[in-house]
Amino acid sequence: QIRYSIPEELTRGAFVGNIAKDLGTDVAKLAAANLQVLSDSDSQYFSVNVNTGIIMVSERIDREQLCGQNPRCFLHLKLAIENPVEFYRIEVEILDINDNPPEFPSDEVSLRIYELASLGARFPIQPAQDPDVGTNTLQTYHLSANDNFNLNVKARTDGGKFPELVLERALDRELRAFHHLVLTAEDGGSPPQSSKTHITIQVLDANDNHPVFDRPSYGARLVENSPLGTLVVKLNATDVDEGPNGDIRYSLSSHNSAALRQIFAIDEQTGEIRVQGNLDFEEATVYEIEVEAKDMGSPTMEEHCSVVVEITDVNDNAPEVILTSFSSSLSEDAPPGTVVAVIHVRDRDSGDQGKVQCHVPPDLPFQLRKDYEHQYSLLTSTRLDREHVAYYNVTVSASDLGSPPLSRHTILPIALADVNDNAPQFEQASYEVLVAENNPVGSVLVTVSAADPDSEQNSRLSYSILRAGGTDPGLDPTRYLSIHPTSGQVSAKLPFDYEQTTYLQFHVEVSDGGSPALRNRTLVHVFIVDQNDNAPRVHFPRAGEDSATQFRISPSTAPPALITKVVAIDADSGRNAWLSYNLVEATDPGLFSVALRSGEIRITRALQETDPSAHELLVVVRDAGDPPLSTAVTLVVLVEEKGPEALQGSEARATDGGGLPTITLYLIVSLVLISTV
Fold first, then answer.
1. Example GO biological process term (predicted)?
2. What does the alpha-carbon distance between residue 27 and residue 49 come to, in Å, rounded to a whole number?
3. CA 77, CA 38: separation in Å to the nearest integer?
4. Which pLDDT score is estimated for 224?
5. 0.85 exceeded by the pTM?
6. Of 40, 301, 432, 441, which cross-links 76 as Cys (Cβ 3.0–4.6 Å)?
7. What is the Cα–Cα distance from 139 to 143, expressed in whole angstroms?
């Protein structure tokens, strides 16, 4: 067996050995012996020059491919010689050369290390691989300079070397989130070869930092009554942690009151505080909001800050009018200066917007007096008269000094209480009444009416009848009349008789129900109107009911001699007493005539012998009433030779009518004398 040693990676044709020399054989003999080289492997790495006996490399030889990590690597050849047949075993040791640098599995290595990892923690790194052997293989590692890690190389029993990173100094992700290291693997060749891998260490966050606001406190200024959704302030908190540990949520602290939580709201994502309720300067001028920012780590960490919100007043409150004292009823005789109400005014705004001025309309009998700040008294300014104005609506106007000013109007209803200061007044100073005689009992003759501008009891009227001065003392009006005490209707107690009473006057007194009562009077004139209730009454000639009055005349009586005169009287008056005389029946209608108005009976022609000696005349006396009333009288005229003249007849009638009243007798005598003349 022949052994040769050659380094790997020789070029083709490289000299391996001189087989002729090493076998001690002539080269020519080897050529004649038909020398052949046989290999145990599939590849023919070597060839022999039979002319020279030199073994040469015929193919590239890679020791690492042939033998891997074996410390020694051999290729076996066989030489065959004929004549005689001989076999020789040749062993070629392939020597390693440093033709391979150490190789890491990857050029980049990523590690994720928790920032709170304890000191001394070890983090293995995938080792580099070097196919070379011996001193040419991987010998050592080198780590780039850094502040936190050291390199520890762990050797295995098989000679492998494994690198480890050892934490020597605590990590702080917030100071340095990534560490970049370079690990170098170096073999023992000459010259040595090396390779590098870049190690990127990501420091995993631990929730070791609480959120931090960019300011310890915030300030904002808002106008009251700001609309809903108005941005108050945008908070900004940061957390140097990452991931959930640095994810911040904002909220209002539980220290805030429930009322404040209804006014303000915060967006948990953006930290924007906005208005969600009514801002009222009069309720609060400053709001201090406690806000907390929490991260989402486990356990959570939080930070607090305060937001001071100042509210600016606007003139949004109208003045308030408060009645401290008020009497809705006032006596009408209250003197000027009487206090009706005490008014307190206030305005919840501030500054000039909270200053209030009050006034009442100038056309009312009231005025305001300022007692002191925020208090006024409402006084009467003039005399009051309930009968002129019974009710007042006094508008108290309160205005502030804002721009624009706000005002409030309060209406005070004031009713004037009545005082009995007005006497009743009749609608007429006097009344004239025409009453037909024979009126029915109980009939209303007249209604007197009085009015009293006072009210209630002071205006309740009562009527009564009084005797009028200057009237007949014996004529008592209450005998004939009565009056309803409340309606003023004057009624007849008895029927009137014109022939007895033609005129009546009396007073009607009215009194109110006040205390003391006030009175007034009116004069009532009652005129009795005549009715045609009396028929004419014949006073001459007088005759019985069934007898006629006789008159005698001489046959020589010449016309128009007055025979007699019918005298009648009607107790009525006016047309009812206007009498007319008519000859209704006569023995000879053409012999006598009756004067229509005077009742004189005259002869109208001379008597003749053929005329009857007795003439009966029926005279009807009728008044002009409606309907007319009448009375009939029958006269008998006797024609006698010895009869008296007409005048004598008249005297005879006068004697016959001696029962006439004196005035009637004088009247008849005068008429007869005038007729005779």
1. homophilic cell adhesion via plasma membrane adhesion molecules
2. 10
3. 6
4. 87
5. no
6. 40
7. 14
Residue 244 · residue 256 · CB < 8 Å: no
Among residues 590, 566, 563, the alpha carbon closest in space to that of 645 is found at 563
Q: By mean pLDDT, which of 260-269, 442-451, 624-633, 648-657 is the weakest?
A: 648-657
Would you say residue 653 has pLDDT above 50? no
CA distance 419 to 383: 13
Alpha-carbon distances, residue 4 vs 176, 378, 393 (angstroms): 59, 139, 140
Average pLDDT value for residue range 14-25: 82
- Say if residue 368's pLDDT is above 90: yes
Helix (H, G, I), strand (E, B) or coil at 483: strand
Residue 228, C-beta contacts closer than 8 angstroms, at least 6 positions apart: 275, 276, 277
Helices (H), 352-502: 477-480
Domain architecture of the chain: domains with CATH: 2-95 (2.60.40.60), 108-204 (2.60.40.60), 212-312 (2.60.40.60), 321-417 (2.60.40.60), 425-529 (2.60.40.60), 537-639 (2.60.40.60)
Cα 611–chain centre separation:
120
The reported pLDDT for the residue numbered 650 is 38
**Buried/exposed code over 276-299 (b: 16+ C-beta within 10 A; e: otherwise):** eeebbbeeeeebebebbbbbbbee
CA distance linking residue 497 with residue 523, whole number of Å = 22
Percent of the chain topping pLDDT 70: 94
Estimate the crossing angle of helix 662-676 against helix 646-656, to 10 degrees: 180
